[in-house]
Amino acid sequence: MKALWGAYAALLTAVFLVSVAAGWTTLGLQFDNDVYDFLFRASNPPAGAPSSVLLGIDEETLRQTRGGVTAIRGILAKGAGRLAEAKPAAVVVDIILADKHDDEADAALAAALAKLPNLVLSTDITRQGWEDPIPVLRATAAAIGHVHPIPDPYDNVVRKISLERIAGGQRRFALALEAYRLASGGAITESPSTLEVGPVSIHAPRETWRPLWIRYRPPDSPVPHVGFAELARDPAAAAKLAGKVVFIGVTAQSATQDRHMTPYSFGQTMAGVEINANAYETLAGGRFIQPVRPSVELASCFVLAAAAGAIFALTSGWAAWLLAGLVLIFVHAAPAIAWSQGWILPYAPLLSAAWLSIVAAASFQHFVVRRNLVRSEAEKDRYQRAIHFVAHEMKTPLTAIQGSSELMGRYKLTEEKRAEMARMINSESKRLGSLIRTFLDVERLSEGQIEMKREPFEAREVVETSMARAAPLAERKGIELRAAGIEPALLRGDRELLEYAVYNLVNNAIKYSPSDTAVTVSAAPEAGRYRISVADQGIGMDEKELKNIFRKFYRTKRAEATGEAGTGIGLSIVDQIVMLHGGRMDVASEPGKGSRFTIALPLSEK
Q: Best label site of 56, 98, 164, 420, fewest CB within 10 Å?
C-alpha cells in the first residue's frame, strides 16, 4: 500500500513539474499573452477624461510643409510658439534631437523650446549608449526620458514599458514617468521593488527593469490628437492643449517606423508617441496591473495538483467528478477574478496543472480500482474453491463419524468392535478439527489475531516429529523420506505453529513428488540461524510461479495438473508463521527437477 501511495504521489509531482514547465514554453507564454489581451479588451472599463493630448506631425502637416520629413525640426520650432501660448501643464517631445544641424537653426529651435513649461526631451538606447539631445537643446529641458519600449518577443505586442533603463553606466527614467513627475510636482522615491511619485506608488521591481503594464485607453476614447497644421490654421485648437500634458511626435504612418502593436491593435499599429501618452495616462489614472509573483504561480499549480490527487484518493464516481468539475470551473475563472483585482495570473500553467492532474489522478484511480477488482475476483474464486475443497474434505470424516456412531447406537457390538469404532470416531474427529483449525489459522494470521507463544524448544524434535507424521504418506506413495543431518539447536517461539510449518513443507514435497523418488530433510545451524531444508524431486516451478507461491489460495498449474487435492493456503500459513518467528523463506526450484524450501530462523539466546 505504501508503494501504491508513493507511486501516486510521484505521478502528481511529475504532473506538477510538467505543468509549470508547460507554462514557460513558447506556446504557453503566447497562450498567456492571448488571454491577457482578451481580458484587457473584455474588462477594461470606460476611460475618464484624458489628461494628455497628442500634438502630432501628421500627414496633413507633412503635405503642407516644404521638405517633408527633413523639415521636422522646423515644424517643431514654428509650432512651439503657438503651443506655449496654450499654456500646457508639461510638454514631452518624442523626437530624438541628437543630430547637430547648423548653429542658427539649432539656436532657433532651442529658443522655441525654452518657452515651453516642464519640457521633457527624449533619448534612446544605441550600441554606444544613450542618444541624448545635443547640448544646446538639452539645456532647455527640465528632464530627459527614454522612449525604449518592450515589444513582447513572441508576438511583438507592446504591453509594458520599462520605467528605468541603464546604458553606458547612465540611468534614464521613462519619458512618461518624467512627464508625470513634472506635471504632478512630485519627486521620484525609489526602493528595490517600488517607485513612488508623490502619493502614487508603483510596484516595479528593479530586477525586471521596473515594468509598467500600460492601461491603453479604449479605441472609442483614445488620447486626443491635434496636428501641427490644425494648430496653425485653427485658433480654437490651442484650447485643446491648455492645462494638458502635450506629447509631441510623428504620427504620420508614412513618416516613421516607430510604430508597434498593442492589445487593441487587431493588425493596426500605434505610433510610439501615442504609446508613451497611454503610459502617462496609466500613471495619471493610478490604475495599475501587475503579474503575480512566481512563487504564487508555483503554489497555485501545486495546490491544484494536490486538490486533484485528494479528490480521487478520497472520493470516487459522480462525487469525484463533481468536485473535479468545480476545480476546473474555478481554474477557468481564476484569471478573470485576478484581473479584476489588478493582478495578471498566468493561465497556461494553471490550466495544464488542473487538467493533467485530474486526468492523471482519475486514470490512476481507474486502473488501481480495476486491478483491485480483478485481484478481488481472483481471490474470491480461489476462496470459493478452497471452501468447496474443505467442505468436500469434511464430508469424509463426518460420514465416518456419523456412520460409526449410528452403528454403535443401533446394534449390539462386541467390545473389540466398539473400541475400533471409537478409535475411528476419535481419529476422524481429530482430522476434522485439523481441517477447521487450518482454515481458521489462515484468517487469524492474515488479520494478525493469532497469539504466538514465546517459549524455548528443541528444533531437532520439531523436525523429527514432523517427519514422523508425514512418514505414512511417503510409505503409501513409495517415496523415500531421508534425514540428511538433523542437528540440535535451541529456538524460541511457538513450537506447535512451527511444527505445522515444517510438516506442511514435508507433506507438500511428498504430495507433489512421483513414486520411487526421495524427499530429503536437513536441519543445521548456520551463520546465526537454524536452517531447515526440504528438497524433493517433484514437479518443480518456474520463476513466475515462484513469485506467487506464498499468496493465499494460489496453486500452480502443475500442481493442479497432478490431480492432488489442495487449498493453496498451506504455504501462505507457513510463510506467515516463519515471519512471526523473525525468520525468512527461501525457495529454489526448476520445472521437472524438483524444489527446495528452506526455513531460516534466528537461534535462541541461552
A: 420
Classify domain 455-602 by CATH number: 3.30.565.10
Parallel, antiparallel, or unpaired for β 149-151 and 158-162? Answer: antiparallel
Angstrom distance (rounded) from CA 448 to CA 574: 14
Task: Evaluate whether 92 touches 264 at the Cβ level (below 8 Å).
Answer: no
296 class by beta-carbon count within 10 Å (0-12 exposed, 13-18 middle, 19+ buried): middle
For residue 531 the three cell numbers come to 536452517
> How far apart are the C-alpha atoms of 94 and 273, rounded to whole Å?
6
Q: Determine whether 571 is exposed, middle or buried from the number of CB atoms within 10 Å of its CB (0-12, 13-18, 19+).
A: buried
Q: Are 19 and 349 in contact (CB under 8 A)?
A: yes
Helix (H, G, I), strand (E, B) or coil at 116: coil
Angle at 279 between CA 219 and CA 341, to 5 degrees: 80
Over residues 550-579, the pLDDT tens digits come to: 776 665 665 555 555 555 567 777 888 888
Q: Which residues contact 81 (CB under 8 A, 6 or more apart)?
A: 112, 115
pLDDT at residue 183, rounded to an integer: 94
Asked whether 273 and 94 are in contact (CB, 8 A), the reply is yes
Q: Which fold has domain 374-446?
A: Helix Hairpins (1.10.287)
Task: Kindly report the average pLDDT of the chain as a whole number.
Answer: 85
Rg (CA), the chain: 46
Got the DSSP string for 246-314? EEEEE--TTT-S-EEB-TT-TT--EEHHHHHHHHHHHHHHT---EEPPHHHHHHHHHHHHHHHHHHHHH
Rounded alpha-carbon distances, angstroms, from residue 153 to 26, 208, 256, 367, 578: 10, 15, 21, 43, 68
pTM for the whole structure: 0.65
Q: How many Cα atoms are found within 13 Å in the side-chain-facing hemisphere of 61?
A: 30
Residue length of the chain: 606
What pLDDT, in 10s, does the model give residues 40-86? Answer: 998 866 668 899 999 999 999 888 887 655 688 889 999 998 999 99
Q: Closest Cα to residue 486, out of 464, 456, 457?
A: 464
> Which residues lie across from 526 on neighbouring strands?
529
Q: 378 — phi, psi (to 5°)?
A: -65, -45
Calpha distance 434→444 (Å, rounded):
15
Within 10 angstroms of residue 360's Cβ, the number of other Cβ atoms is: 20
